[in-house]
Specification:
The structure holds two protein chains of two kinds. Chain A is of the alpha+beta class. Helices cover 34% and strands 19% of the residues of chain A. Chain A has a five-stranded mixed sheet. A four-stranded antiparallel sheet of chain A has the order 2-1-4-7, with no helix packed on it. In chain A, helix 3 crosses helix 4 and helix 10 crosses helix 11. About 24% of the residues of chain A have low confidence. The longest helix of chain B has 22 residues. The chains are: A alpha+beta, B mainly alpha. At the A-B interface, helix 2, helix 3, helix 4, helix 5 and strand 6 of A face helix 1, helix 3, helix 4, helix 5 and helix 6 of B.
Chain lengths: 343, 168
């Protein structure tokens, strides 16, 4: 790749827009050209910022067309002939009603009975908070881009089974979605089942509600990443040497997400570690793809909530914390994904 | 290229870059430190696509550290490789502040973009590849998209005052 061609790819480096081949060509070219190397080095600060899903989402919102923001849609909806005429008509009627009203008699005193006591039942919060429709990082985000309504979450694939344990029927019902798109939660449960679920709340919900959705994505001939079948944890996924493969994750809980790469004969490497919120979408690696040389690799994914982190910090494990760069996190939800690259 | 060849070439690039930023003498030390970190903590990496971006991260950290401390010649404080854990994801307050500042400046500058540049950056932030952007924007060829991107990137940089970083 010559330098003018490489320079055209510069803008795609920090945003993660390049295909693995484009990225490799650009980086290789930079080794042989100082100006290009320095330009890429100067992009590093931007790349680091855009690797943060939350920052990326905020900046994307800045660029959203005005009509796609909620206030914009409201204004656009109102600024149309029919709603305007209806509003004018309503205003005229309201003015007429006010003018025609007789003055009411002056009241000196009035006695009201106290309102009856109302039992307020607050259902538990849903497991998945409503998300904005826009995707964060994933290139293969057609499903999300089609969901234009802000309050209408994009449809999610059914949650995968966690660690081989079948989901409790009590909580599975809680994950179904109504036509309105809102997650049905405790309202669908009988009082007894709700009590049983509450009694076992930490254990049952942790086991049955996967903290994140994940899938392995493979790049096709057109350069688009597509999800391959979502295998259960603890199985081996066969890939061909040289294939561009990455891991896609969507957090369903807030917490600290870590993706570690284990490879025989090499120290473990954390390829992603960051705080995430429900709905955050993550690619690991953030740019490019996993090493696809022949052999086996294992991705270990953990999502620790703040409570779990605190519990771990307070336990005796803290004094035996592994050196920085090594992965040894004992959590309740590690998912292990084995990839085997063959010729 | 072998790892050795890559690192040899990388050394020259890093040294020239650091020299242009902080002067020759501290640049020599910083270059050596950077290569030491790569050798000691990332000996398992041997691809250009891994080593070059890694060197950017390490070098940026070290230059920022040097500039913050205002180290005088001959009193350079070495940061041990153990103190530099890029994979940890934790950042110090200064880095977070600088990143927040960059985001605010980007937010203002992007707000001033119009038309195709605005749409192009939006699609990039949504994770589209150049090929997908070509389809989305109806460009005749992918080279057209590259050219648009180059111009729009320059436009955004101009709005940012010529640099992503607020001080050089």
């Amino acid at each position: 790749m010559n330098i003018p061609e490489a320079e055209k790819l510069l803008g795609g480096y920090a945003t993660g827009t390049l295909t693995p081949a484009e990225r490799e060509s650009l980086l290789e070219a930079s080794l042989h050209n100082q100006a290009l190397f320095e330009a890429l080095a100067d992009e590093e600060v931007l790349r680091e910022l855009l690797a943060d899903p939350a920052a990326r989402r905020r900046l994307s919102a800045t660029l959203a067309p005005v009509s796609e923001t909620l206030p914009g849609r409201v204004v656009a909806a109102l600024w149309r002939p029919f709603p305007m005429a209806a509003a004018a008509g309503f205003a005229a009627v309201a003015i007429a009603v006010v003018l025609m009203q007789r003055p009411s008699p002056v009241e000196v005193a009035q006695v009201f009975a106290p309102p009856p006591a109302v039992a307020v039942e607050t259902p538990p919060p849903p497991a998945v908070a409503p998300r904005k429709a826009r995707s964060v990082i994933s290139r293969d985000s057609r499903v999300l881009r089609d969901a234009k309504e802000l309050d209408q979450p994009a449809p999610l694939p059914p949650p995968p089974p966690t660690a081989g344990k079948p989901a409790s029927p009590v909580v599975v019902g809680a994950l179904e979605r109504q036509d309105t798109g809102k997650a049905v939660f405790a309202e669908s449960l009988s009082k007894e089942k709700r009590q049983a679920a509450a009694d076992e709340a930490p254990k049952v919900r942790e086991e049955a509600i996967a903290p994140f959705h994940w899938e392995i994505q493979r790049q096709d001939g057109a350069g688009v990443y597509r999800g391959v079948s979502n295998p259960a944890s603890d199985t081996t996924v066969a890939m061909r040497v040289g294939e561009s493969v990455r891991l896609f994750l969507e957090a369903r809980q807030a917490g600290h997400l870590v993706v570690a790469l284990l490879q025989a004969g090499r120290p473990s490497q954390e390829i992603f570690t960051r705080q995430v919120q429900p709905g955050d979408r993550v690619l690991a690696p953030a740019t490019g793809s996993l090493n696809s040389a022949a052999g086996e690799r294992e991705l270990v994914v953990t999502l620790e909530t703040a409570e779990q982190l605190r519990a771990r910090a307070n336990s005796s494990l803290r004094s035996q914390a592994p050196p920085a760069g090594q992965v040894s996190r004992e959590t309740s939800n590690p998912i292990r994904i084995r990839l085997k690259f063959v010729d | 290229m072998t790892r050795e060849q890559i690192l040899t070439t990388l050394r020259e690039r890093i040294l020239a870059y650091a020299t242009s930023r902080i002067g020759r003498d501290p640049a020599e030390d910083l270059t050596q430190e950077t290569l030491l970190v790569i050798e000691e903590k990332y000996s398992h990496l041997d691809a250009v696509a891994d080593l070059v971006p890694l060197s950017f991260q390490i070098l940026r950290f070290k230059i920022a550290d040097y500039q913050r401390r205002g180290v005088r010649r001959g009193e350079f404080r070495t940061v041990s490789p153990d103190g530099l854990d890029l994979a940890d994801g934790s950042e110090d307050a200064q880095t977070l502040l600088e990143r927040k500042e960059l985001e605010e400046r980007l937010h203002k500058a992007m707000g001033k973009l119009e038309g195709r540049c605005r749409e192009l950056f939006r699609l990039k932030l949504e994770g589209m590849s150049f090929r997908e952007i070509q389809t989305e924007l109806g460009a005749e060829s992918i080279n057209t998209v590259y050219t648009w991107d180059l111009r729009c990137r320059k436009r955004l940089l101009d709005l940012m005052g010529g640099s992503w970083e607020s001080r050089r």
